[in-house]
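Much of the work behind modern protein science is quiet bookkeeping, done one molecule at a time. The protein below has been through that process, and both of its lines are reproduced in full.
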Amino acid sequence: MIRKNFIYIKNLIPKNVKILVVSKNQSILSIKNLYQIGQRDFGENYVQEIIKKYDKLPKDIRWHMIGRIQSNKLKYIVPFIYLIHSIQKIKHIEIINNIGFKYNKIIKCLIQIRISNEINKSGVSDKEADKLAFFSKKMKNVKIIGLMGMSSFKNMKEVNNEFMYLNNIYNIHKKKYSYNVLSMGMSRDFKLAIKHGSTIIRLGNIIFNK
């Protein structure tokens, strides 16, 4: 069922859009099922869970940290993480840069923009994102490659406006900082996100549920 769902969705989307499978709370077996048919990008919200899965799964998996950043736990994931999606503070850029220097590694990151007014959605404004991007240029072991945003659970008209807003910010920053990644869109709204230029869609429920 998981493989069937994934293949069906993969056939729906353009080849230039990457599927990031949100594997939080999913078993090792479920991830292996998708790995065996070629999926390599998986996203997790919690440090403890991503570490356990990293230890038990093939090392060519590209792990994405999509949850809120905890400063004291960054040291555990920076050595193997592929992309951090949720940068919102200069402090985090500094910590990641220091750990990256220790491991002689450049850590790719996205800045999370707040596009929804819902209380549980976080992110920074476009002006704050500009400050973070400018600051990161001083860092040798951090590379900001794009933006991320999480839409609301309101009607699709509102979601459409949120994606349009983020796309506008992305296009400005893309010219200024040579970004190439826009991560937006989840199971309920990924088609709309692709319409507005998303290059990474984060899918969980639509793949793992019946």
Notes: The first helix runs from residue 2 to 10. The chain has a mean pLDDT of 95. Strands lie at 18-22, 41-44, 62-65, 83-87, 107-113, 142-149, 181-183, 200-203.
